[in-house]
Amino acid sequence: MTGDLARLLDGPAHGLAAAVSAREVRARDVAGAALLRAGRSRERHGAFLHVAGEDAIEAAAEVDRRVAAGEALPLAGVPIAVKDNVHVAGMPTTAGSRILGAFVPPEDATCVARLKAAGCVVVGKTSCDELGMGSTNETSAFGPVRNPWEPTRVPGGSSGGSAAAVAARAVPLAVGTDTGGSVRLPAAFCGLVGVRPTFGRVSRLGLVAFASSFDQAGPLARHARDAALALEAMSGADPRDATSLPGASPDLLSRLDDGVAGLRVGLLDDEEGVHPDAAAALSATARLLASRGASLVPLRLPRLALGVAAYYLIAAAEASSNLARFDGVRFGARAAGDGPAELVRATRAAGFGDEVKRRVLLGTFALSAGHREAWYERAQRVRTRIALDLGEAFRACDLLLSPTAPGPAFPIGEKSGDPLSLYLTDVFTVPASLAGLPAVAVPAGLSRERLPVGVQLAGPAGSEALLLAVARELEAARGPWTAPPDVIR
Amino acid sequence: MRIDGGLVRRMARLAAMDVTDGEAARLAEELSRVLDHFDAIRAVPDDLLPPVPDAPPAPLRDDVPSSGPGERAYVAANAPERARGHFVVPRVVSRNG
């Protein structure tokens, strides 16, 4: 790999796109170099489940032709990785599960098609928790992903492969999906910017459905500007997703450097169960924002703590319904059975892993006669309460600052036998998911063990531009992005 | 909330998913622990919990055929067993009855 290509892949996506647009470097050469890095990232961290081949070089050559023809592409030639529960035409989709067998989608997810239209080149599919169900990437049927900051630790999940690939500099940008925190947690554990958009901002067409009232795709990046560019490209109404928001993509770039002067930042006072290093990072971030002209508004929102229960009950209920499609008949893996019903039961028993079975059963229970009112309907009312509480909070402040995760990345295997303790990892991320609000995970320095800790900025519906501007300000104040020890070269 | 193996097996039947006896026992234990924690939502006073508002009506699109690869492309590419454009399943009705 030439020094120029290595430097471009190590740097931000927007710099790489500028170099391709100025024809200083060819997108096909960038793609070739990124494919090598993706292969190494698969070997070293298990971040990729599929690495593209000649098809990616051809796609990059097409980008070069479009640039030569004078087309302005905001992400010209930027190599990206896509979480394996998001369809890329012609590449296998496993969603980290055996249930999909050798499924190959014939079309791109809308968000992938839009990133390609903006100039991106998909170099591979990244590992994830099975069907998006997990917070550590350990529930993948294809093995755990290693955190480039410390390979014995989890990268977070469920978009763990996407986060490990971007943190290790295999690619500058990746697509993740976030149901209850699956973009934000891995972003925090790997020292990245990760965006969960307002519900409906990004089309869900082409995502393997987990919980349809929560699922949103979002970008993982090393730099706020790259996350903004990617989200702008992915967003916009889609007639094939009835829940997509009407209207064009929001403008996320023109206010990116607006700073934080005059902003009211809500600060939650509840630090119960938060690791001291995460608490210290939160206080330091609050002081930094105050020093740059923001005002701090202490807030108490005690009912947010009920979010984990409400989220897991509703998401499991939706999953139990969505996953009914995996029947061994229409697509995916099939196990032998004497009759159609036996075939379906055997296929699902063999195809789903432990965590998916747990959630399907939890969801079936919450929706079943005799339990529905006490659990599912109650959880929906708590969801409504939390959305109202957050709406009220956003009258007193412009955004809410909290930790992203209760602490830094923990060792692989430490919590995998304890579902409840894993669910509680999501305590700070689920409220925005329940209310359909945007939230951005932002790096906030390193713990004493030199592991990344993040903070989360959550705002009212449609506030992505504001949140990304705050992320950009924090990034500018902290200096250059810190690379993990185990980068891919 | 106590979940026992029998309840797990009943849910598994509803979810069309076989579970072994060993799995049922383990899942009962894990789900009991999870639901014990989730019980907190049942302790919230009723008057604090507003009714769930009706979902907005789903937007409708014009009733015209749309582009996209459609069902047939997915079927042709991905059905585990197919014949003459159909999905193949085990025999439902035997020749004798």
Characterise this structure.
- The complex is a heterodimer of chains A (489) and B (97).
- An eleven-stranded mixed β-sheet of chain A has the order 1-3-2-4-6-5-10-11-9-7-8, with helices on both faces.
- Chain A is built from 16 helices and eleven strands.
- Chain A has a domain at 3-262: Amidase signature (AS) domain (Amidase signature (AS) enzymes), CATH 3.90.1300.10.
- Chain A has helices at 3-10, 13-21, 27-45, 54-68, 110-117, 160-167, 184-190, 224-234, 276-291, 307-322, 340-351, 354-367, 373-396, 419-423, 430-435, 464-478, and strands at residues 48-51, 79-83, 121-126, 173-178, 193-196, 216-221, 264-268, 295-299, 399-403, 439-446, 452-458.
- In chain A, α3 (27-45) runs antiparallel to α4 (54-68), α10 crosses α12 (354-367) and α10 (307-322) crosses α13 (373-396).
- The model of chain A has no long low-confidence stretch (mean pLDDT 96).
- The termini of chain A are close together.
- By secondary structure, chain B is mainly α.
- Chain B has a domain at 5-46.
- In chain B, 38% of the residues lie in helices and 4% in strands.
- Chain B contains three helices and two strands; from the N terminus they run αααββ.
- Chain B has a two-stranded antiparallel ribbon with strand order 1-2.
- In chain B, β1 (82-83) and β2 form a beta hairpin.
- In chain B, α1 (5-14) crosses α2.
- Classes of the chains: A alpha/beta (489), B mainly alpha (97).
